[in-house]
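Try it yourself: sequence plus LLP, in.
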Amino acid sequence: MSDLIYKKNNLAFSHVDIGHLAKKHKTPFFVYSEEILVKNYIEFFDGAKNAGLKNPLVCFALKSNPNLEVLKVLAKLGSGADIVSGGELKRALQAGIPSHKIVFSGVGKTEEEILYALNVSKNGIYSFNVESIEELELINVCAKKLKRVARICFRLNPVVKPKTHKHISTGNKTHKFGLLEKDILESLHNKKLWSHSKLVGLSVHIGSQLLDLKATKRALMILSAVALKMGPDLEFIDVGGGLGVDYHPDETSRLPSIHNYMELVHTNLNKYFYAHTETKPRIVFEPGRRIVAKAGIFVMKVLRNKISEKNIFVIVDGGMNDFMRPSLYGAYHGLIPVKNVPATQHCHIVGPICETTDCFGSNRLMPKFNSGDLLVLKDTGAYGFSMGSNYNLRGRPLELLIKKDKKIKIINKAQDYTDLL
Ligand code: LLP
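Structure, out:
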C-alpha cells in the first residue's frame, strides 16, 4: 500500500492528515515518517542477511539526511554511518552511532578532521576510506602524532560507467573519487605510509540513483579482483551506496528490489572473491537515498496563480533553496494536491526564488488552485533539507517527524528573520 493516499479526499502521509498538519505548522515544511524509515532500514539490513551475507554493516550515508532525530531512529536499529566531514562525524556520535560503525569517505578530509576522527576513541573510527595517496600520508602522520594506529580502507575507482545523471556518477577516471588499482597496489609496498596505519578494507562507490545494476556488477567483479591481490588483511569489503528509488512512475518497473540487489552483491562476491580465498571479510553498505528518500515529503502552500498567455504558473511558498534536486539535476519529483480535486489544467509549479530554474514541475496536470491550497512534493527525505540553503535570505524550513505512535514531533524549527539577520 502506498504511504501517500487520499482518505475522504484529503491526502494522508503515513496515516497522518496533511491538511491537519498544515493548520498547526507554517508551510513550507518537511515531514518524515519513523514507520517508513524503520521499514526501509530493516528491509535493507535483513535483505543483506537473508541473501547470505554474514555480519553485514549498514552505514547510513549522513549526507542524504543528517537530522539528529532521524539518525537516532537509525542508530537504535543498529545502523552505522558513512560520513564526509567533521560535522557529520559529530552528528553521528551525537545520535548514538558508535565510532566502530563509522566510515569516513571524501576526497578533502582536513588535518583537523582526521585528528578528530582518530581521537574519538582508542581505536578511532571503523575506517578512513582513503581517496588519494597524499591523504594516506597525512593520516599516517596524524596517527603518529597521536600515537595511534589509523584503520585504512582504500576507495577503489573501478573505472566503470553507471547509467545515471552525470553529476552523480563517481566511478570513472575522469571523476575525482577513489584510487586506481595500480596506485593502491603500489602504495602497499611503501612502508613509510604504513608506520601508523593498518589496512582493513577496500571500498567502491560508483554513483547514486542507480536503477540499472550492470555497472554495479562490473564494479563488484573488479573490486573482488583487487581485494584478492591485496592479500589476507582485509576485515571488510565496502560496496558503497547508490541504490536508486522510483521518483517517476516510469521507473517503478525498472526499480531493483532489495532482494535482487542483495542477491547480485552476494552472487558476485561469492563467485569472484570468496570462492578464491580462505578469508571472510564482512560486507559494509553505505546506502542513503534508498533508506530515506521515500520516508519524507515536502509540504507547500500555493501563494497565487499567474497566467502568461498559455503558461499557467502556480507560485508556491517552497523554493529551490529548500529542495534543490529539480533545479540542480532536472530531477523529477511527483507533485500531488492535498485536496483530491479533478485535474483540469497543465501548469508550472514554481517557487519564489529569483532563478528561472526554481521550478518543481513543468506542464504538470493539476487541478485549479486557489491561494492557500496545499501541495506535496514527493520523495524528498533524501538530499532535501541537507542540500538546502538560505539563498535569497530565506529561512530554512521546519522539519517534522511522524512518530510510530502517530504523534508529531518538531525535529528542527523553522528559521525566522532573527536567526538570519
Ligand atoms: N557513499 C559515498 C561514498 C557517497 O558519495 C554517497 C553519495 C553515498 C554513499 C550514498 O549514496 P546513495 O545511496 O544515497 O545514492 N545530491 C545527489 C546525490 C549525491 C550523492 C553523493 N554521494 C542527489 O540528490 O541525487
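One thing you can check immediately is this: The mean pLDDT is 96.
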